[in-house]
Amino acid sequence: MRAAILRGPADLVIKDVAAPAPGPGQVRVAVEAAVTGGTSIKVYRRGYHARMGRPPLPFGHEGAGVIDAVGEGVTSFAVGDRVVPANSASCGTCRACDHGMTAQCEDMVWLGGFFAEKLIVPARIVAGNLHRIPEGLATEAAAITEPLACVIKGNDRTPARRGERAVVIGTGALGLLWVKVLAASGAHVLAVGRRPERATIALELGAERSELAHEFDPDPVKADLVIEAVGSTAAWELALAAVSPGGRVNLFGGPPERTNVALDTQRLHYEELLVTASFHHTPFHFAEALRLLEGGFIEPGLLLQEHLPLEELPAFMKRAASGGGPLKAVVTPSA
Ligand SMILES: [Zn+2]
């Protein structure tokens, strides 16, 4: 079978590898839709992910498909089931899991390699974070579950309040999902991003205003809630500059390793700022995201802007990493 392997920064190849057979408790998924996004572009560019792994790295962490083989002992899934596997499963027993911080699990099982014809889903994910795709929801639409799950977990961290002023910095797929979630909560949303065509999508998703990043002046804005969805230190600083006294900042985008930002101690203390972050998702939020997608929460076509075969992924990633790609592309490895 063919599989995309990341060998280092901006070094992605399609390789022929033996199709794996599922072991006890595992299932094998024929991947029908694997999607790109801001995180996959970031991982491609950097050549690693702080949690998901280092090269050689089976590439891709969002996707869905059909079970085509089941391992010994699997009773809750069968060949032919359309499923969306989460890309992780926490252990449920460590200190972090015990405290409900399952994204910080000390023994997390990660799943990568969605950009491949077949994907082996580890037993722990089969047991607790593999989801049947509801009838009526397209397989490729279910592939958005992962990023939406990250956003609704983030929103639990800093719940949007009706009528408050919110700013979302970053209009990639995740930033735009944030716009949708905040607007649905009744917040007045200003979206800030670099690309004019994405500003238009932000308005479609419920933002009241959008501004281009190079024109954005945080001083007169002073929002009650600021979401940073870029993952750069400059955007983190901008987020902190845009919050009003008593406001909340959610640093949602993950910057590169060994980077720092300075905090204005006077503002942090005397303005009583709440500064927090959210990483990844939990099985609860994953299930909730799938339920929202089933209910038509978002029009998938707004995000899934392009389709391509697996062979074209390396060239696509090169283009996307230089800043010219679509919000999300659907790769169809087993089509
Ligand atoms: Zn754990």
Number-wise, the strands total: 18
- Remind me, CATH topology of the largest domain? Quinone Oxidoreductase, Chain A, domain 1
**Number of helices, where a helix is a run of at least 4 consecutive DSSP H or I residues:** 11
- Residues in helix, %: 25-40%
Assign the CATH class of the largest domain: Alpha Beta
Note the overall shape: globular
Bound molecules: zinc ion
The biggest beta sheet, please? 7 strands, mixed
Query: Averaged pLDDT, please?
Result: 96
Key features of this structure:
single chain; about 325 residues; alpha/beta; Quinone Oxidoreductase, Chain A, domain 1; Rossmann fold; 2 domains; seven-stranded mixed beta sheet; six-stranded parallel beta sheet; 18 strands; binds zinc ion
Describe this structure in words.
It is a single chain. The chain has 335 residues and is α/β, with parallel strands linked by helices. It folds into two domains: 2-146 and 280-331, Quinone Oxidoreductase, Chain A, domain 1, CATH 3.90.180.10; 159-277, NAD(P)-binding Rossmann-like Domain (Rossmann fold, 3-Layer(aba) Sandwich). Helix content is 28%, strand content 27%. It contains eleven helices and 18 strands. The chain has helices at residues 38-46, 95-98, 123-128, 139-142, 145-157, 173-184, 196-204, 233-241, 265-270, 283-294, 313-321; strands spanning 2-8, 11-16, 27-35, 57-58, 63-70, 82-85, 88-89, 109-110, 118-121, 130-132, 165-169, 188-193, 209-212, 223-228, 243-251, 274-277, 304-308, 328-331. Strands 3, 5, 6, 9, 10, 17 and 18 form a seven-stranded mixed sheet that branches. Strand 14 (223-228), helix 8 and strand 15 (243-251) form a beta-alpha-beta unit. The chain is globular. Bound molecules: zinc ion. Zinc ion is lined by residues 90-91, 94, 96-97, 105-107.
